[in-house]
Design brief:
It contains twelve helices and 17 strands. It has about 450 residues and is an alpha+beta fold. It folds into two domains: about 280 residues, FAD/NAD(P)-binding domain, CATH 3.50.50.60; about 160 residues, Elongation Factor Tu (Ef-tu), domain 3. The strands form four sheets. Strands 6-2-1-7-17-16 form a six-stranded mixed β-sheet, with helices on one face. Strands 10-11-12-13-9-14 form a six-stranded antiparallel β-sheet. Strand 4 and strand 5 form a beta hairpin. Helix 1 runs parallel beside helix 10, helix 2 runs parallel beside helix 10 and helix 3 crosses helix 4. The radius of gyration is 22 Å and the shape is globular. The two termini are about 15 Å apart.
């Protein structure tokens, strides 16, 4: 590779944007290829980089007790553009990190457009990149263009795996009946920027809940194409009607669980509850938490308006479906996410089989750093498996069973166990914070080593 050759990043979503940012921070030129608006997708509404197409939540921001919160902190310490934009555009959401989706994507696009080392090309890469591109990060996400997906399958000899990911509806705030709802976070927990009353809650009694479930089961859903019918859902993002079909109480122990909530009008916990979370900085839009659905739009409007407080709801967006595609990473990728069949290609984001905004951006962060290290003729330094970044990387490259590989969120089950004897009966409740403290200490050592390498260069 000649000194002037750039890294080519295909895909301007969260992973691609983060990969481009990290490579540029290391002083390496980048060409970022994004096919929108020249070619649209089934889920995107704009042509902006890093558009959030589903929820506006990055989930828990609890560093000590939640693996995704720990991943947030690790990414912050790594200089993540995605986390910086999320923090700058965060909305009240209890203990979660929720963002104003428009401000978030606009900030990321502006930062990349202003970077002298990043060139943004609005074009589709149809098929495999040309051989002259000697360093490529494929971060095309779950909506990889058909031409590129077909080329990857032909190159690897592996059939791509796919599942459906459902999008939750969004309601205009002024159409919610505040006389029939109340504001409260679970257990009154106040997150950054919040006051313990970050969610609007709609209570259902037993009769209302049973009627709601019955309506879901009887409703008409979107018809699938023949080639889509055997595609499995991801269990972490099931449509509400699919959950309802698994048992009458499934929703009441899932997104409609009433724990930690007290209806002030009656002074007790409701039988079931629907929570709405602020979706934009102005507070004019709220999304139905966990209410991904594949119901037809007319059915959605009818059934969702049966929820107390939503009888006159006006929807800014109804739920929908898009097909996600990912590769069998444990079989196809090496430890630094290069394709074994063609090492000039490195994969990042959801296409690698991680699930969630944060996880996708995290893998993009690593891909950008690894590609930049190679560009400087160095061997990429892998993050320790004891960190959230390292645990996630280890899982998708060699920790998961290639024969049953499915998308995975970051969780403490992916981390190596603490040393024998570290957990006693007295400190058993401190296990997660202990894992988090170890992770951050090991991350700092890794960052110090990589900083030394860059400084020497």
């Amino acid at each position: 590779m000649s000194p002037g050759d750039p890294i080519h990043v295909i895909g301007g979503g969260l992973a691609g944007s983060e990969a481009a940012w990290q490579a540029a921070r290391a002083g390496v030129p980048v060409v970022l290829h994004e096919m929108r608006p020249l070619r649209a997708t089934e889920a995107h509404l704009t042509a902006r980089l890093a558009e959030l197409v589903c929820s506006n939540s990055f989930r828990s921001d609890d560093v000590a007790n939640n693996a995704v919160g720990l991943l947030h902190e690790e990414m912050r310490r790594c200089g993540s553009l995605v986390l910086a934009a999320a923090d700058a555009h965060r909305l009240p959401a209890g203990g979660a990190l929720a963002v104003d989706r428009n401000g978030f994507s606009a900030a990321i696009e502006a930062a990349l457009e202003a970077d002298p080392l990043v060139e943004i090309r609005r074009e589709e890469v149809a098929g495999l990149p040309p051989a002259k591109w000697q360093s490529v990060v494929v971060a095309t996400g779950p909506l990889t263009s058909p031409a590129l997906a077909a080329a990857i399958r032909a190159l690897t000899g592996e059939d791509a795996l796919a599942f459906f990911d459902a999008i939750a509806p969004i309601v205009h705030a002024d159409s919610i009946d505040r006389e029939k709802t109340w504001r409260q976070s679970r257990y009154g927990k106040a997150g950054p920027g919040g006051d313990g009353a970050d969610y609007i809650n709609c209570a259902l009694d037993r009769e209302q809940y049973r009627g709601f479930v019955a309506a879901l089961l009887a409703a008409e859903t979107v018809s699938f194409h023949d080639w889509e019918k055997d595609t499995p859902y991801f269990d972490g993002c099931l449509p509400i009607e699919v959950m309802a079909a698994r048992g009458v109480d499934t929703l009441r122990f899932g997104p409609m669980k009433p724990v930690g909530l007290i209806d002030p009008r009656v002074g007790r916990r409701p039988y079931a509850v629907v929570q709405l979370r602020q979706d934009n900085a102005l507070g004019t839009l709220y999304n139905l938490v966990g209410f991904q659905t594949k119901l037809r739009h007319a059915e959605q409007t009818r059934i969702l308006r049966s929820i107390p407080g939503l009888e006159r709801a006006e929807f800014a967006r109804l739920g929908g479906l898009h097909r996600n595609t990912f590769i069998n990473s444990p079989r196809l990728l090496d430890r630094s996410m290069r394709l074994k069949a063609r090492p000039a290609l490195r994969f990042a984001g959801q296409i690698t089989g991680v699930e969630g905004y944060v996880e996708s951006a995290a893998i993009g962060l690593l891909a950008g750093r690894f590609a930049a290290a190679e560009r400087r003729s160095e061997t990429p330094e892998l993050p320790p498996p004891t960190t959230a970044l390292g645990a996630l990387l280890t899982h998708i490259t060699r920790g998961a069973d290639a024969g049953s590989f499915q998308p995975m969120n970051v969780n403490f089950g992916l981390f190596p166990p603490l040393p024998e004897g570290a957990i006693t009966r007295a400190n058993r409740g401190d296990k997660k914070p202990m894992i988090a403290r170890r992770a951050l200490a090991d991350l700092e050592r890794w960052l110090a080593a990589t900083r030394t390498s860059v400084a020497a260069e």
